[in-house]
Specification:
Elements (H helix, E strand, L loop, with lengths): L1 H65 L2 H27 L8 H36 L4 H42 L3 E5 L4 E5 L3
Antiparallel strand pairs: 1-2
Helix pairs in contact: 1-2, 1-4, 2-4, 3-4
């Protein structure tokens, strides 16, 4: 009887270990899939940003050479504004080809940092729009070349800020959906972000 108990305990332990290893492999597959989707979202999004920047620079360069007054100022601001977008977008695309860890902690850290970046960018975009409004309205009290510059720069900041606001909002939502998949695969574990870091809540059922 004693030996029977030992055998049951031994084989029961082996079964638990096998199940644990299977769970680990399944979880690792989930983490790899989420990591791959996050990388694809970043690469496609940053490529779109770079394409927008190149288009604005081409049109802006042509516009600066063929227009005058407030239209030239509009194209001028579009051109120089998007030199920054092109640098950031290009470097961002290159960074997506760097290898990433696909463990649970790395996924949480990435999700936390990328969401903070996009929320900050959204606030910055609203600042661009507000600045465009302020500069444009300043032109109403100006005359001549100064008024043309204010009208052109103001409209440009409206456009660029509006585009980036929509862009960052879409990118935030796409990344947040991937983060929610972690909660979907761990129904008892709820992960959330606080102002200082990550909050983990586990419910025992």
């Amino acid at each position: 009887m004693k030996y029977l108990f030992v055998l049951i305990t031994f084989f029961g332990g082996l079964n638990l270990m096998a199940q644990s290893n299977q769970d680990t492999l399944e979880n690792q597959k989930i983490y790899q899939d989420i990591t791959a989707r996050q990388t694809k979202i970043a690469r496609v999004g940053l490529t779109a940003l770079s394409t927008w920047a190149v288009g604005n620079m081409v049109v802006g360069g042509i516009g600066m050479s063929n227009t005058s007054g407030k239209r030239r100022s509009f194209h001028e601001m579009n051109f120089y504004f998007n030199t920054v977008n092109l640098v950031l977008g290009g470097l961002g695309v290159l960074s997506t080809y760097q290898p990433r860890k696909s463990d649970f902690k790395s996924l949480i850290d990435y999700s936390h940092s990328i969401e903070k970046v996009y929320l900050f960018n959204i606030a910055l975009d609203l600042g661009y729009i507000a600045s465009g409004w302020a500069i444009y309205n300043k032109g109403l009290s100006q005359k001549g070349e100064k008024a043309d510059r204010s009208f052109g720069y103001g409209k440009s900041l409206y456009l660029q800020g509006g585009f980036l606001f929509v862009y960052d909002l879409v990118m935030f939502n796409l990344n947040h959906r991937q983060f929610k998949k972690l909660n979907d695969n761990w129904p008892n574990l709820q992960v959330g972000f606080t102002g200082n870091g990550v909050r983990l809540n586990y419910s025992f059922q």
